[in-house]
Specification:
The chain is α+β, with helices and mostly antiparallel strands. Helices cover 16% and strands 56% of the residues. It has helices at residues 2-12, 174-180, 182-197, and strands at 20-26, 29-37, 42-59, 62-79, 88-97, 100-105, 111-114, 117-120, 127-131, 135-143, 152-163, 167-171, 201-212. The longest helix has 16 residues, at 182-197.
Length: 213
């Protein structure tokens, strides 16, 4: 034990831990964060990330143009099994925010196909919104953010997954519901719900630069 403590001190400097600030980019977009060590084996971190992008997709008999908006905070705890040997860590935390996808069904022919049958759009549009829970758990692994790192700049990497079942709002104008029938509209909504449910696991991969001071 004395040798291990001496070796850690020699390699990484005094065990007086230092805070850090960092920037990153990945599947959550771009973000900034702040970390604080809790001894030589653990960190706590807080960060904010954001991105918005457009994406078209098919679900059931409808084609949608969608825009995803991901803006959330992250609160994390890091555990380093062997910080004096390798800065590998296990990370658990929470994503907190209003991540959602807005989508509008397209109709270049002036009709919507609902549950296999084409109906006139009647000059109106079908809208959908999938909203993630305001709080989602996260589990992951990574390298970097070590509480034993020397002061100055270093790199880090994260890979993990957040979980949360999105809530679906499916807005079909009353005139189209009357034309197609509620049962057919419900069938189309269920098809979209099945598509949305596949995204309850959101993969997170990111890299960045940290400065410890």
């Amino acid at each position: 034990f004395p040798y291990t403590l001496f070796r850690s001190t020699a390699l990484y400097g005094p065990l007086a831990m230092a805070d850090e600030v960092y920037g990153q980019i990945g599947t959550e977009g771009a973000g900034i964060g702040y970390g604080h060590p809790l001894g030589s084996l653990a960190n706590v971190r807080a960060e904010v990330n954001g991105v918005s992008f457009s994406h078209s997709f098919n679900s059931g008999d409808l084609h949608y143009d969608g825009t995803a908006t991901l803006i959330h905070a992250g609160l994390y705890g890091d555990f380093f099994p062997m910080p004096s040997v390798v800065p590998f860590r296990l990370t658990a935390g929470l994503l907190i925010g209003d991540d959602h996808v807005n989508a509008t069904a397209t109709s270049p022919s002036g009709t919507y196909t609902i549950n296999g049958v084409a109906y006139s759009t009647l000059g109106q549009s079908i809208h959908a919104k999938a909203t993630y829970p305001a709080v989602r758990p996260y589990l992951g692994i990574g390298f970097g953010h070590s509480p034993l790192a020397t002061k100055g700049f270093s790199m880090f990497f994260d890979a993990g997954v957040a979980y949360g079942k999105p809530h679906l709002d499916f807005d079909v104008p009353a005139d189209i519901v009357a034309e197609a029938g509620q049962a057919n509209v419900d069938a189309e909504k269920q098809s979209l719900q099945n598509t949305v449910d596949r995204y309850r696991f959101y993969p997170i991969v990111k890299v960045g630069v940290t400065y410890r001071f």
